[in-house]
Automatic annotation (TrEMBL):
Keywords for this protein: Oxidoreductase
Name of the featured protein: TIGR03557 family F420-dependent LLM class oxidoreductase
Database matches in InterPro entries: F420-G6PD/mer (IPR050564), F420_G6P_DH-rel (IPR019945), Luciferase-like_dom (IPR011251), Luciferase-like_sf (IPR036661)
Pfam families in UniProt: Bac_luciferase
GO molecular function annotations of the record: oxidoreductase activity
The keyword Acetylation belongs to this UniProt entry's keyword annotation: no
Organism annotation: Aquipuribacter hungaricus
EC number per UniProt: 1.-.-.-
NCBIfam families, sorted: F420_G6P_family (TIGR03557)
Enzyme superclass (EC): oxidoreductase
SUPFAM superfamilies: Bacterial luciferase-like (SSF51679)
Length: 321
């Protein structure tokens, strides 16, 4: 079992994000996962620096800890050729510690370039074409591609690592699990749903399975729940809402009916260890073997110190798939 730490790029400025990654390495985490967004979910989060610049700085500031995007949308705001180049460069800078997590994106981040954000079916088709382009460019040499949605003309990534990064595809159902098995090396998920892993395996998938474990650590349960509500209540709106709203102000409005009890139902809140391990166990039992501690408490550095003292060992002891 590998244990990771979610660095929400919406929650801190770029220098502090690097400091958190360095602290996570010192605390003993196996990897860090960074969100890749243009906007924060809520105005109260207050940040959203460029993830790829932060990744490069983390790579040069750490020695051991793995890096992953959780996740990048390589279809609208970015062209997949740019992501193929960025991922290859990050892999080189980190000496092979990088995993490229990809997904079909959210309107919140993709609409900013003025391109129509397509319906779900088209987004999945675009993600397939994007992965085909990335794989093509990682073969080396000049490459071209003429897809229904995406094109590539005489492009070459000159700096490629000897060992290419793994690609983990965000999964929520059969289409994405099939895509992950065909063109990816693993999966990303946010729900403790064994069906996701079953679909991935049925389609021939056999790589690492990443899952984000929601928790909020603080010295009191009340402080933890309040912090989770302040910064992360958007997570309870459901994926159909999360993928479609265009701006933080929309998420402010859509999440106003979320209560503290709702937050407590999703996040393991408070200072205790047992509830955090129990939450992680649900994901391990569902077949995930790379568990990402997604702390939305008020003090990330204090959480990392606390996790080092007991959480890491307890979660590592859980059985993977």
């Amino acid at each position: 079992m590998q244990v990771g730490y979610k660095i929400a790029t919406e929650g801190a400025g770029p220098k502090e994000l690097v400091e958190l990654a360095v602290h996570a390495e010192r605390a003993g985490f196996d990897f860090v996962e960074l969100s890749d967004h243009f906007h924060p979910w809520l105005e109260s989060q207050g940040h959203s620096p460029f993830t790829w610049t932060v990744l490069g700085s983390i790579a040069s500031s750490t020695d051991r800890i793995g890096l992953a995007t959780g996740v990048t949308c390589p279809t609208v705001r970015y062209h997949p050729a740019v992501i193929a180049q960025a991922a290859a460069t990050t892999a080189l800078l980190s000496d092979g510690r990088f995993v490229l997590g990809v997904g079909s994106g959210e309107r919140l981040n993709e609409h900013v370039v003025g391109t129509v954000f397509p319906a779900v079916k088209a987004r999945h088709a675009m993600l397939r074409e994007a992965l085909e382009i990335i794989r093509l460019l990682w073969q080396g040499g000049y490459q071209s591609y003429d897809g229904r949605y995406l094109q590539l003309e005489d492009a070459r990534v000159f700096d490629l690592p000897d060992t290419l990064p793994l690609i983990a595809v965000a999964c929520s159902g059969r289409p994405s699990a099939t895509l992950a098995a065909e063109l990816g090396d693993g999966i990303f998920a946010t729900e403790a749903d064994p069906e996701i892993n079953a679909l991935f395996e049925a389609a021939g998938g056999s790589g690492p399975r990443y899952a984000e474990v929601p928790m909020a650590w603080a010295e009191t349960e009340q402080a933890a729940a309040a912090s989770a509500w302040e910064t992360s209540r958007w997570a309870l709106t459901g994926w159909k809402v999360m993928s479609e709203l265009p701006n933080p102000v929309n998420f402010e409005a859509a999440s106003q009916t979320v209560t503290l009890d709702d937050v407590r139902g999703q996040f393991a809140c408070g200072p205790g260890l047992e509830d955090k391990v129990a939450k992680a166990r649900t994901y391990a039992d569902a077949g995930f073997d790379h568990l990402v501690m997604q702390n939305v408490g008020p003090d990330q550095h204090a959480f990392l110190d606390w996790a080092s003292d007991g959480l890491l060992g307890a979660v590592r002891g859980l059985p993977g798939h």
